[in-house]
Design goal:
The chain is α/β, with parallel strands linked by helices and 559 residues long. The chain has three domains: 2-66 and 68-121 and 328-343, ATPase, nucleotide binding domain (Nucleotidyltransferase, domain 5); 171-322, 2-Layer Sandwich (Nucleotidyltransferase, domain 5), CATH 3.30.420.40; 363-558, DHBP synthase (Alpha-Beta Complex). It has 19 helices and 21 strands. Strands 13-21-20-14-15-19-16-18-17 form a nine-stranded mixed β-sheet, sandwiched between helices. It has a five-stranded mixed β-sheet with strand order 3-2-1-4-5. Helix 6 (124-133) crosses helix 13 (330-343), helix 7 (177-187) packs antiparallel against helix 11 and helix 15 packs across helix 18. The protein is globular. The model has no long low-confidence stretch (mean pLDDT 96).
Length: 559
Amino acid sequence: MNVLGVSCYYHDAAACLIKDGHVVAAAQEERFNRRKFSAQLPVCAINYCVQAGGIAFNDIDYVGFYEKPFLKFSRVLINHLKAYPFSLSNFLKTTPEWLKDRLVLPLVLKKELGIKKEVFFIKHHLSHAASAFLVSPFEKAAILTADGVGEWATLSCGLGEGNSIKIVKEIHYPDSLGLLYTAITTYLGFKALAGEGKVMGLAAYGKPVYLDKFRKIVAVNPDGSFQIDECYFGFNRGGRMYSDRFVKMFGPAREPEGKIDERHSDMAASVQAFTEEVLISIARNLNAQLGVKNLCLAGGLFLNCVANHKILENTGFEKIFVQPAAGDSGGALGVAAYIYNTFLNNPRNFVMKHAYLGPEFSQGHIKRILRMSDLNFKEFNEQELYAYVAGKIAKNKIVGWFQGRMEFGPRALGNRSILANPCNPEMKELLNSKVKKREQFRPYAPAVLAERSREFFALKDDSPFMLLACAVREDKKKLIPAVTHVDTTARVQTVAQGSNPRFWQLIKAFEKITGVPILINTSFNLRGEPIVCSPEEAIECFKNSEMDILVLENFVLEK
């Protein structure tokens, strides 16, 4: 049985194919059309999933969409009416898009791809909940989802047991922690959808001095539910997300690319602390209500790895699962899993242990590309490769590492990665200046051998998808300065040998040279671009940056 899941039209469009209960392929459209956060119908991603599954479009049994468009459109119309006349320009801009494709998805799929199957629609937050629980290792777990807004829900609490998911509580728009966080992101001069992670990183440089003011403009109840005072925001007006009253309370907004001062860092620290405070309160109450030891998280807000680990530390839950595409792209996974496991009542026979679900390229294909590119390269066998590349990293060379299947989700997890030496205190500056060209305050993540992760980091659980940030152990801070953030935390990826043996072997080879079982791991892309998908894109990125070495499977290029 073949189930295709689709998410699109807002941001992070994606497709996922489940074949006889196993996720065989999943990818975001941005990796193919090279438009970051692409929202359009994921034609390329769907084509890839079908090809990777070894099937034809006629072999698809069910198609699922990650939300209910008519319900969402009703909320959009009501908000336009409430905000009139301020919302008129936004109404005129977006309504044709709804009428053209968003409300007639089955017709669009038939026209663009020849898919004639009936399309199943489920609620946005149910897709998130399914993406979190149905591919988790848990038979029973609490579920917490949070993002900007789905149809009406912005946060939901639920219980997953066996094949079933029961939503027990929802918070509705305009009360939204996700929109609050994004509003502050834009206030601090960063782009919505792209800058929230920057705010999380900047928060470590400030103090939450505005926390009491956030508590005044967002009323929080004992159970963690909350109400936002809309006077301070403009979520439904189509312009900026914060009001003049907000500016009067907190001061003028930072201009994009402007200087970052202490007030901006304190603002980031305050919204981060407030978000953590509310999520911890909600999770504690959910734990007390349901009495289960496992927690599944999904929705864009739970790409916040700092908050995720604090939830695990402070709420009574023993184990946590956050799948790698926790944002909207994961909705494609969620709706496909919901159709197969819950709607059709098939047993759960798949656990998401890794994110390597995208395209891969053969040695022969890569060799042809290299020869056509007239580039000098060397070919190594497996063990020679690991020792050679690890030795170069130990000598502070920056390496583009391209192998196997591309990752699903926004994190590079060892298959489309840029790797470097975590022991060099100057490596963060070198990466920023030579390759990534990004803000100096943003930290770099450590990829650590899973079996040695607790020696270096105060992790409460494994973190295979780089979605938990925790303290670096006191005696290790000076040993790995390039991955120790200013607040002495790190966004950790635990690398298991069974999940990614080649990446594990490379880290192991670095450990043999240095004694440190860790590499800096950051995404293989330049600023403003999606992570590379193909070897051609990797070569182009290598040429346009000051990376020292490019590894394409067993082929090594050096400058």
